[in-house]
Amino acid sequence: MTDTPMTPDVLAAQCPSREVLRLLTSRWAPLILIVLKDGTFRFAEIRRSIGGISERMLAETLTNLCAAGMVLRTDHGEIPPRVDYRLTPLGVEAADRLREFADWVEQSLPRFANAGAD
Question: What is d(CA 65, CA 23) in angstroms, rounded to the nearest whole number?
Answer without folding.
Answer: 8
